[in-house]
Amino acid sequence: MGKMKVRTKQHISVLEEIRRTGRYVVDPKHAAADYEGFREMALQVYDWLAGNCTIADKKPADAVYPVWVSVTDETVQPREKDYVIFELEADESDVCLVNIGKWGMMLNFSYIPRDEADDKRHKKLLEDCGVSDAKAFMSRFYPEIKAEITESWHRLFDESILPVNSDCYGIIWEIREERILNIHGL
Prior knowledge:
The protein is of the alpha+beta class. It has one domain (3-184). It has helices at 12-21, 39-52, 100-107, 116-129, 133-138, 143-152; strands at 3-11, 23-24, 67-70, 83-91, 96-99, 168-172, 175-176, 180-184. It has a three-stranded antiparallel beta sheet. Strands 3-6-5 form a three-stranded antiparallel beta sheet. Strands 2-7 form a two-stranded antiparallel sheet. The radius of gyration is 18 Å and the shape is elongated.
């Protein structure tokens, strides 16, 4: 396998931890912090991702959630105060690509259709039941629909399923000091 350059924006405290321990894994209490108000629901999606991503078998014992990385220059998040951007070298086999459009659908507890016909079929099912994906997912009254939704999430990693948008990010399990090529924003 080859190498690839990835970047990740992290709080300055992550740099301090790496300097102290030589590595960083996501602290579970910080995972999905951006989803204030529905963090617990978002963590269900993160739990699914952690258990089903293409690198799930490489997860270190102390890791719970992955580190998000940019795999292209266009998707690097802008700099901001108290944050640094790590430029890392990663083995391609240690990076799981995530289509950001499909990931957004998952965070909305939505079904990822196989194709247009499947999309129409699923929407008809929701209409017949008088429910939305999100309501079915959050309710205990539609276990079959919730199961169909979560089963469809495996399409996150299927490149043959047309993406909502083609931007991809990646996930890795840890930032290791020896993999750091550069740190921007110091």
